[in-house]
Amino acid sequence: MVMLSAAWLPFSIASSFPSSQIDAAPAEAPVADLNALNLDSLQLVETARLVEEASEGYKNLKFIQYDGVTEAELYPTVMDTYGKVCAAMKAPRLSNEDKTRFKGILLDISDLLKRGSIYYSNQGLTADMSRFAQAYVDMRLNPEMADINFGPKTDLYPALVYCAASSAYNGGEFGKAVDYLEEYLTTGDADRAEQVSLFLGQAAINAKCPDRAVNRMIMASERYPANFNILMLALQNCIEAGQTDRIQPLLTKALAMKPDDEQLILAQAKLFENEGNYSSAIDLFQKLYELKPNSLQVNQHLALCYYNLGADYYNKALMESEEKTAKRYSRQAQAYFSSAVGKLETIVENDPTNTKYLRALAITYGCLGNKTRLDEVNVRLQALGLKPMPMNGMPESIAFSEQTSNLASSAAVVPDFQEFARGFVEKELAQWSKRGEFEKTEDYEKRVNQEKVYQKYQALCKKAEADYLQKYAGRLRISDLSLEPYDVDNESYKINSAMGPIIVNVPLKNKEAEAFKASWNSIQLRNPKYFIKDNRVAIASVELVTSGGKSYRYDSSQAADYDFTDVSLDMNSFIAQGNSKRDRTDKGLSASSRPKVIRAKSDVDENIPLTNRKAEKTVALIMANENYKQVTNVESALNDGETMARYCTMTLGIPANQVLSYENMTYAEMLGAVRKLKQLVGALGDGVDVVVYYAGHGFPDESNKDAYLLPVDGDGFTTATSYPLKKLYHDLSATGADNVMVFLDACFSGATRDGGMLAEARGVALKPRIADPEGSMFVLSAASDQETALPYKEKNHGLFTYFLLKKLQESKGNVSLKDLSKYVEENVKKNSVTVNGKLQNPRTSVSGRMRDSWESKRLRP
Question: What is the model's pTM?
Answer without folding.
Answer: 0.53
